[in-house]
Design goal:
Radius of gyration: 42 Å
Number of helices: 2
Shape: rod-shaped
Order of helices and strands: HH
Largest sheet: none
Structural class: mainly alpha
Helix content: over 70%
Number of strands: 0
Length: about 100
């Protein structure tokens, strides 16, 4: 009977060691997963910041280009109005016809 008890004790010890090895492996795997997750988050964040800054710079450059084009168009329009001939008598005549007709 002692021999059987020793075998059972030995098997229980092997099972306990296997269970402890499994727990240690799980802890190590969890640590590696956490490190990999943190590394991926850091990489994502830095790439996100880099890409979004590039998009924002491009957007600002395009806005400035459009605004400069609008300013140039407005300046040209104002110059064309200022350089045009004015016929005051024709304007007065047309204005009177609208008011008094």
């Amino acid at each position: 009977m002692t021999n059987e008890a020793d075998i059972i004790r030995h098997l229980l010890e092997v099972e306990r060691e296997a269970s402890q090895m499994l727990l240690d492996a799980q802890k190590e795997a969890d640590g590696e997963i956490a490190r990999a997750h943190a590394e991926a988050e850091d990489k994502f964040h830095s790439e996100y910041v880099r890409i979004s800054a590039g998009i924002e710079d491009d957007e600002n450059a395009r806005k400035e280009k459009i605004a400069a084009g609008h300013r140039a168009d407005l300046d040209n329009y104002i110059k064309s109005l200022e350089s045009g001939a004015r016929d005051r008598s024709a304007f007065d005549s047309l204005f009177e016809s609208y008011l008094f007709s």
